[in-house]
Structure formats: structure tokens, C-alpha cells
Amino acid sequence: MIALAGAMCASAGHAVGMQPIVGGESAAIDDYPYAAYLVDARGNQYCGATVLSSTQVLTAAHCALAIRESDLGVVVGRERVASNAGQKVGVSDVWVAPGYRDPLSGDDIAVLTLSESVSAPAARLPRSSDDHLYRAGTMATVVGWGRLFENGPKPGALRAADVPLVSDSECADVFSSFDADTMVCAGWDEGGIDACQGDSGGPLLVDGTVIGIVSWGDGCAEPGVPGVYTRVSTYSDDLRSDLVRSTGD
């Protein structure tokens, strides 16, 4: 069962929440310099994020709302959690998609405005018209600092795994709450590779473009059960407009 920001939540017969990388490999932060993670007031990593600009990061709504805004921290440029590399900054504002209620209902997306600028490069966003990035069978990469298997230990360092995108119809057959407008699924039929607890909020990437946000699932890397991600292209026009307003470009 997947934990949702430390709490347990279930609906439609499926557990939801923070997913780690199961069956992946160690990854270098230099290869994913926009990969970031969230920490609580004690400095504990609990979710992932993606740098959108020098002052904003993208994450899951359930991650952004898991703790008080004043306790939220964002770490960028750090491959190993125990190191002092990169930057750790606070959060000055939290935007959550207006329609968000819980991950199974969709709109599991949030943008955190940072209390100070970071030097990490920004990830590419898809355009609302980039349907080709979501074709079934397209290989995507999920990265994060989550658990190595369900309820298992965290690796303490960045990991990455390749998973194929799953068709909307196939995902709807698995999850009755699947919404093709706000969600996309990825995973192997045989299981064994997946995001897991602690990976929520992190990016699902196709050719360096963040097409998804780790959102929810049923267990970690179970056969025939893909992971569910927020479909970023649905929100990309609004995200781009907000980035222009925040940067003045």
C-alpha cells in the first residue's frame, strides 16, 4: 500500500499516495539538474519536485498540502540527501489547482514559489498540443529519491527508471477513477519497475520534457498495475502564463 504524505488514503479499492523508484538505477543530478525534492521542518525528504524557473518548482498538490507552508523546504542540486550540495530554500507561496480534492479525483498539481532564487536550470514543459508525447508505448523516465520497494528503505540518493506509457483505455480498465484529461499512466505489464513512496511530486520525462508528475497508484511495481501521473500538458498553458508573469519575460 502506498502512503500519501505519511497518511493512508483509499478510494475505489485502490491505495493512493507517494510513490520511490523501484527497479531503477542510480542517477546523477547533472543528468537531471532540474530534479528537486521537498523536505519538512526537520529536513526529512518526503516528495519530489521539478524546477520550473529560478523561483518556482512543480510538484503534486498532495505533496504541497501535506505539511504547513511555513514548514515546507525545497532542495535543488543535491544528488545525495545526506550531502550539503546544492541549495535548500523556503517557500513563500503555494498554488494548487483549483479543482483539486484528492489524487484520485485529478488536478494533483501544485506550484511552489521559492523564498529565494535557485541556480538550477529549469525543465521543459510540454505544450497543450503535444499529444505525441503521450502515445502508448512511448518510453518515459521517472526520477526520484523514494523507496526501493513498497514500505522498503529509501536509497538516500537520486534514482531513475524507464517505463512505457500506457494507453488511456488500458489504464481505465485498471483504475475506475482514471481521468484521461488530468492523468496519464506508465508501467510495465510484468511490473518490477515503478515509482514508489517518496517519489510523489517528481517528474515523468520524455526527451527531457516533464510530461507527468508522480501522483498515485496501487502498491509499487505490481504486475499489470501502472503508476498514475498528473498529465502536465493539461495545465501547461496556465503554467507558462504564470511563469511569464513571475519572471517578467
Automatic annotation (TrEMBL):
Record keywords: Disulfide bond, Hydrolase, Protease, Serine protease
SUPFAM superfamilies: Trypsin-like serine proteases
Listed name of the protein: Secreted trypsin-like serine protease
Molecular-function GO terms, alphabetical: serine-type endopeptidase activity
InterPro entries: Peptidase_S1, Peptidase_S1_PA, Peptidase_S1_PA_chymotrypsin, Peptidase_S1A, Trypsin_dom, TRYPSIN_HIS, TRYPSIN_SER
Higher taxonomy: Bacteria, Bacillati, Actinomycetota, Actinomycetes, Pseudonocardiales
One example of a Gene Ontology biological process annotation: proteolysis
Domain Peptidase S1: 21-244
Family affiliation: Belongs to the peptidase S1 family.
